[in-house]
Amino acid sequence: MGERTVIPFGPQHPVLPEPIHIDLVVEDEHVVEAIPSFGFIHRGLEKLVEKKDFHEFTYVAERVCGICSYIHGMGYCQAVETVMNIQIPPRAKWLRTFWCELSRAHSHLLWAGLLADAFGFENLFMQCWRIRETVLDVIEETTGGRVIFGSAKIGGVRRDVDNDTLKRCAVKIASAAAEFEELKKVFRDDYSVKQRLCGIGMLSRDDAWTLGAVGPTLRGSGVRTDTRLEGYAAYNELKIEPIVETACDSYARCMVRMHEVTQSFDLIQEIAARTPEGPVFEKPSGYPNGEYFARLEQPRGEVIYYVKGNGTKNLSRFRVRTPTFANIPPLLHMLQGCELADVGLIVLTIDPCISCAER
Amino acid sequence: MTRNFLAGFAYLLLAPVIGALLAGVDRRITARMQGRRGPPILQPVYDLLKLMHKESIGARRTGHFFVLGHLVFMMAAGFEFFFGGDLLIVIFAFALSSIFLVLGAYAAHSPFSHIGAERELLQMMAAEPILLLTAMGFYIANGSFRVEEISASPVPALLWLPGIFAALAFILTIKLRKSPFDLATSHHAHQEIVKGLTTEFSGLSLAIIEVTHWYETIMLLGIFYLFLAPYPAAAVLLVAVVYLLEILLDNTSARMKWQWAMKSSWTTASLLGAINLIVVYYWLGVQP
Amino acid sequence: MSFLKRSPWIVHYDGASCNGCDIEVLACLTPRYDVERFGVVNTGNPKHADILLITGYINEQSQPVVKAIYEQMPEPRVVVAVGICATSGGIFRECYNTKGGVDSTIPVDVYVPGCAARPESIIDGVVKAIAVLEEKHLAMKKARAAS
Ligand code: SF4
User: How many structural domains does chain C have?
Assistant: First the structure.
């Protein structure tokens, strides 16, 4: 038995750019306990609904997190639209789906890069982010932003994308998809990558379920869920099969995300081909009155938005339950008994977005 | 004798220069492999000169002392090698130099550098047997531990010691701190223990560690040169190829854990090194 | 000294941001933008760094952390506030947990606008920071010569 030392992980730490602090109690290089502390990035933006009017708040909602920002903005809009009983035009729905999938692809690629970095494979990090740039190009071409799109709006989308642009984007995405397949092979087959991922950070199906894991973390443990099956936006017209892996380890979670990128690329092609003509915006009138829970699938898992309006221009309550928040208990469970060398890696396999979790 | 001294001093003067250039080329090639342009070739020199102008904070006096020891023993090891001296002395001075760095890291109050130091010790344990095997191999093949005499032998040592050569190439990765063995500290920061061994050093101390690393690289490559010493051109080519392969490996693998490092290097040591040694021993024993 | 100019090492800290700017900071390191061309290395270790890139504003909890990182950096050092919320609090200015921009806690030398700041402007900010670094170095030298 070695002597116990406490190793601080974060808030400033090269593996995870975001501030979360975990005190790792280690014996030699064996982690006995992981004690997290939070709040480094808490902004309290949910309370801003009382200061900004409900249209303006879309932009605040987008900044819950800069990585999956679009889906946050859109989820908020969707909740408010339901409260106000607005039917958004079909083209707007399809465009929203288009951007959702782009977000997912870029978020997963970003994650894959960070993961590669966490196990010290610098080249792979660079390649992931290189492909991600193509996705960002498409985002920029269609919305004008790279990470914060600002294109969701209550009643539809802020601007239309003409069909030529959509076609052009589909071609770009196809080339990115081809490059990505090569990359995926490395994650899937490389000896050293497998050495670092297989059997590390086990989370059994039952544990995942009872500890409340969501998204790829849950799917990597063999549970078939995907909020996209609820059929919001245009998902009810697309065929989506949740990607499930049963190995329950880091490798499984990694493969879930890898396949999801491929799935997203395919969906983007389909959406670009099938988006119907028509208007993209339906002007809302009046103020929201009532409450609603909206559920969407973020790249990191299921996200829930609660809005409550009181008939004035400010909502009286906004609340978001983000996927990372739900994935923290499973994470702490996985960290117990792992090796110090695996900590960064295991933390990353839940794809933590601390900014989401603390809002 | 004067020639020996000249070679030794030439090493002391030129090794940092060549080492720096090599590091620059390394970073450039790495960047190209990653689809980037990369820094100028002279970048390591710029980094070094900058570090020398920065304030050294945090590290205590003992830290400085250990870092100096690290440098001095490394220079001694390299000098002895290029002087043509005894391989065993080279290897022990080299080990001592690494120990000084480890002690320096232990002197700092940081869990990161402590863990880095522990890992460095483990890595030394993984690498040292092969270095000793190499010395023994040279002795068996040439009847001497003296570099001078080994390099003067007309038959290239590579002929006798291909297994040992391969094993040595394996641990070169450990010594160069490249993936998959960049456990204790790495050239890129993204590690669970930040910079590990070197986390607590800054300014001048860090600069000295960097220079020592260049001395180390050149001396290790010198050992590779020794394998083909009778044919200088081929030997230089061999060294270049080995170094390129190291860069390639660095860019195509993940960082492994120390358990794996130990297991794999000892397996290679015993498989390639020891078997090679035994075969050569009997072979040369049969035909004197 | 022109060497400072040629080898600025950065450390990045995420104050209370939305991540938007953070991922753009990281994007600067990758093939498309490749700041290593200018000798920039992301050290991840304040003790090795010359430039501190901070994204996001400062809240109660992160204030001591930011201070600690700043104090660990050896002189000369430069602070770059990346993104509008690092500059002034931006969209989160009215939140209850805001202390204000980064300059409410440590002195800031360069402000990079944008929400999210684009990689191009971040690189521009770093280049400006290098000039400031140089100035500080000269000032340090003068002070040392005077004493
Ligand atoms: S400036 Fe904007 S994009 Fe950047 S961190 Fe702040 S809110 Fe996010």
Answer: 1
Using the mean position of ligand 1's atoms as its centre, give its distance from the Cα of residue C126 in Å: 18
Which of A69, A41, A60, A59 is closest to A147 using CA atoms?
A69
For chain C, state the CA radius of gyration: 15
B154 touches chain A (CB under 8 A): no
pLDDT recorded at residue A16: 65
C-alpha distances in angstroms, C106 versus A27, A29, A314, C57?
A: 37, 36, 35, 12
Give the rounded distance of the alpha carbon of A304 from its chain centre: 13
Q: Could you tell me where the DSSP H helices lie in B108-231?
A: 111-142, 147-152, 157-160, 162-175, 203-226
Is any Cβ of chain C less than 8 angstroms from the Cβ of B28? Answer: no
Is residue C120 situated within a structural domain?
yes
Which of these, A357, A356, A331, A330, lies nearest to A345 by C-alpha position? Answer: A331
| Residue C54, domain CATH | 3.40.50.12280
Nearest CA among A121, A328, A105 for reference residue A211: A328
pLDDT confidence of residue B203: 72
Q: Which chain B residues are within 8 Å of C138, Cβ to Cβ?
A: none
Cα(B18) to centroid(ligand 1), Å: 45
Of C3, C38, C72, the CB nearest to B50: C3
> Is residue C50 a part of any domain in this protein?
yes
Rounded to whole angstroms, the Cα distance separating C137 from C131 reads: 10
pLDDT, greater one: C75 or B181: C75
- Cα separation of B215 and B82, whole Å? 12
Q: What angle is formed at CA A110 by the lines to CA A105 and CA A114, rounded to 5 degrees?
A: 145
Contact predicate C3/B49, CB 8 Å: yes
Cis peptide before A329, with omega less than 30 degrees from 0? no
Hey, which chains touch C, using 3+ CB pairs under 8 Å? A, B
pLDDT tens sequence across A150-163: 788 888 888 888 88
**C26, containing H or E segment:** helix C20-27
- C27 lies in some domain: yes
Task: Establish if C41 touches chain A: CB-CB under 8 angstroms.
Answer: no
pLDDT band at B182 (very low <50, low <70, confident <90, very high): low
Domains identified in chain A and CATH numbers: 4-358 (1.10.645.10)
- Please tell me which of the candidates B35, B188, B253 has its beta carbon nearest to residue A127: B35
Q: Which amino acid is at B238?
A: L
Look at A3-12, A257-266, B28-37, B65-74 and tell me which has the smallest mean pLDDT: A3-12
Q: Give me the residue from B54, B57, B189 closest to C44, CB to CB.
A: B189
* One-letter identity of residue A160: D
Instruction: For residue C90, give the DSSP letter.
Output: G
Among candidates C23, C30, C97 on the partner chain, residue whose Cβ is nearest the Cβ of A67: C23
CA dist., res. C129 & res. C123, Å (int)? 10
**Any A CB within 8 A of B190 CB:** yes
- As beta bridge partners, residue C12 has C53
Subunit partners of chain B (3 or more CB pairs within 8 A): A, C
User: Quick check: A190 contacting B, CB < 8 Å?
Assistant: yes
Inspect the interface and report whether the beta carbons of A195 and B34 lie closer than 8 Å: no
Cα dihedral value C96, C102, C103, C104, nearest 10: 30
* Ligand 1 surroundings by CB, under 6 angstroms: A 63, 66, 148; C 17-18, 20-21, 55-56, 83-85, 90-91, 115-116
- Contact yes or no for A330/A300 (Cβ under 8 A): no
| Residue C92 forms contact with A (CB below 8 Å) | yes
Give residue A141's pLDDT. 84
